[in-house]
Write a structure and sequence with these properties.
Length: about 625
């Protein structure tokens, strides 16, 4: 499955375009299937429908666990590094992980969870999170992991959308110096959900929590009373594996659905190739399992490849900014996969946090989630990668299931701030606003993909029409990514950022409409508009322009109140960085907010506001400029 030279890359790429079905069939054959597929690919982008390996049967946990037992049963599958460096880290072998997953799968079954049922998982970065995910997959239940930073309301919305019957959580979470309530947040969420029959609570912080008789169960108790044998449920390749909610430019978050066969093939293929994974290597992906990066490159990709995957519970700056480097040294990490926002933040603390740590185990570095600026790229490569580790800038999305455009570590010639070339099997195209395909090199446009790959989104849970409209209707016959992109003279791709109303704050996707809706719920707010502005560490910060019903008496207090409302409705990750009170917003005569102008003002580019003559009230622009923060 692994490509080893640039010539092989080119050959594989050509083969993947000439004979995509043959290309993917060859890769898929390397997995354990219960029943072979009847048809490799069935697709219709006009309808937003894609099916891979139809008729095939498998269980992803047999690929992630069982098939490794004979050869590497005693090898660590997971290394867990707790938040507090003084607490002992834990290593879990493939054999023990298999045992724990089977036990927990039996707990789920005992409480009535069946194939196709939805299970919400709201846990900190503890091994139990991976166990819970895999236990769902074992019995064919569809997991919906919700990132620990989301509010009770966000959890409730996600539980209700998917009609989850079970929630798995912990009493609390350790995050740097803080203890964060988890069960309590779930309890608040459940006041608005009636589909949930049981909550399983893992004890992490030993914080006292309310436990409702007949509904709430302790993880530790439950696993004592079940068998450690749990046969894997045979799944159709196109049965859903999980739902993961992500923000779009409009409305409520979308439940992106991935399926068992294609997702497994794609997550594993990309993991082995992009990181050039060698048996025995320790892989440390710093993302949270609550995001797609954690699903694909902490859990499924590495485990299906038989790798050792490191799960870190804490934050990069606790107890100080040397934490990642201490972890690398302590666990002899080989592959470090992180986000530009983390790199920029650690860069700011200075090199004395890096020096004195033995980073010689590192063989490969990776970056994901947002564009990486040249400075951060070089800092990472030189100071962490000793200028010898390949650095892969990987572009992809929740909807793509796995990495799409990236160098193969050590094989594809790198270019700072470029995701470089598409992986074999990925056919990117750039289109202009009118949908014309831009041929040749040295062009910029909107990034689309014209042919399916096995990891592509299958549907939005419960809303196939929205799937079709969001991704397959902007440009006919193509999947539209929402990203802008440059293809330079060498044919290298550089992702320039979202072209829709989606922000990327510290690598987290945030929809402007969602934040505006939350702000508008605050007492005294009449209307608001959100834009992203360049932020040194976060990549983008959130700038809010807000009209209030009367001039705020204590603006600072008002700002804090608005931030609290956003935290409560969405979660702390969506809090605005800057709030400017305005008396009006720049609108067209048809009432549309001209975000382009607000974006320029937030960037301080007052001279390049463009044509403002079509505005309903051009004077409002002058006022906003004067009050800009
Ligand atoms: C952005 C994260 C530039 C992009 C895996 C995309 C990137 C969105 C890169 C998806 C990269 C991700 N360079 N931009 N290497 N990787 N993005 O769904 O705008 O959380 O559309 O998936 O992040 O974010 P998501």
């Amino acid at each position: 499955m692994r490509i080893q030279t640039f010539e092989q890359y080119q050959e594989a790429y050509n083969q993947s375009v000439e004979d995509p079905e043959g290309f993917w069939a060859e890769i898929a054959q390397q997995f354990t299937w219960r029943k072979p597929w009847k048809k490799v690919l069935n697709w219709n982008f006009n309808e937003g429908v894609t099916k891979w390996f139809e008729g095939g049967e498998l269980n992803i946990t047999e690929n992630a666990l069982d098939r490794h037992l004979a050869e590497r049963g005693e090898q660590s599958a997971i290394i867990w590094e707790p938040n507090d460096p003084d607490e002992r880290s834990v290593e879990i072998s493939y054999r023990v992980l298999h045992d724990r997953v089977c036990r927990f799968a039996n707990v789920l079954k005992k409480h009535g969870v069946q194939k196709g049922d939805r299970v919400c998982i709201y846990l900190p970065m503890v091994p139990e999170l991976a166990v819970a995910v895999l236990a769902c997959a074992r019995i064919g239940a569809i997991h919906s992991v919700v990132f620990g930073g989301f509010s009770a309301k966000s959890i409730a919305d996600r539980i209700n959308d998917a009609q989850c019957g079970m929630v798995i959580t912990s009493d609390g979470a350790f995050r740097g110096p803080k203890v964060i309530p988890m069960k309590e947040t779930v309890d608040d969420a459940l006041e608005q959900c009636n589909s949930v029959k049981n909550v399983i609570v893992m004890a992490r912080t030993r914080t006292p929590v309310s436990m409702l008789k007949g509904r709430d169960l302790w993880w530790e108790e439950e696993v004592k009373h079940v068998d450690s044998i749990c046969p894997a449920e045979p799944m159709n390749a196109e049965d859903p594996l999980f739902i993961l909610y992500t923000s779009g430019s409009t409305g409520k978050p979308k439940g992106v659905v991935h399926t068992c066969g294609g997702y497994m093939v794609y997550a594993t293929y990309t993991f082995t190739n992009v990181f050039q994974y060698e048996p025995g290597e320790v892989h440390f992906c710093t993302a949270d399992i609550g995001w797609i990066t954690g699903h694909s490159y902490i859990v499924y990709g590495p485990l299906c490849s038989g790798a050792t995957s490191l799960i870190f519970e804490g934050v990069p700056t606790f107890p100080d900014a040397s934490r990642y480097w201490k972890i690398v040294e302590k666990h002899k990490v080989n592959i470090l996969y992180t986000a530009p926002t983390a790199i920029r933040s650690l860069m700011g603390y200075g090199l004395h946090f890096v020096k004195d740590h033995d980073l010689s185990s590192l063989t490969k570095l990776g970056s994901v989630g947002e564009p990486i600026n040249q400075e951060a790229w070089h800092w990472f490569k030189i100071n962490i990668g000793r200028n010898i580790c390949p650095l892969v800038d990987t572009w992809w999305q929740t909807e793509t299931g796995g990495i799409m455009i990236a160098p193969l570590a050590g094989i594809t010639p790198e270019k700072p701030s470029f995701a470089t070339l598409p992986l074999p099997g990925v056919q990117p195209v750039l289109v202009d606003e009118n949908g014309n395909v831009l041929e040749g090199n040295g062009v910029s446009g909107n990034l689309c993909i014209k042919f399916p790959w096995p990891g592509i989104i299958r549907t939005i849970y419960g809303d196939q029409l929205r799937n079709k409209q969001t991704y397959f209707s902007t440009y006919e016959g193509m999947y539209f990514t929402g990203d802008g992109c440059l293809r330079d003279e060498d044919g290298y791709y550089r992702i320039t950022g979202r072209v829709d109303d989606v922000l990327n704050v510290s690598g987290h996707r945030i929809g402007t409409a969602e934040v505006e809706n939350a702000i508008n719920m605050h007492l005294g707010v009449v209307e608001s508009a959100i834009v992203g502005y360049p932020h040194d560490i976060k990549g983008q910060g959130i700038y809010a322009f807000i009209i209030t019903d009367q001039k705020p008496e204590d603006p600072e207090m008002f700002r804090k109140g608005i931030a609290a409302t956003v935290s409560r409705i969405i979660g702390p990750i969506a809090k605005p960085d800057k709030i400017q009170f305005v008396s009006g917003l720049p609108k067209t005569r048809s009432g549309k907010i001209m975000r382009r102008i607000l974006r320029k003002i937030s960037e301080g580019q007052f001279d390049s506001l463009g044509d403002t003559s079509t505005l309903l009230d051009p004077a409002v622009v002058e006022e906003i400029k004067e009050g800009a923060l």
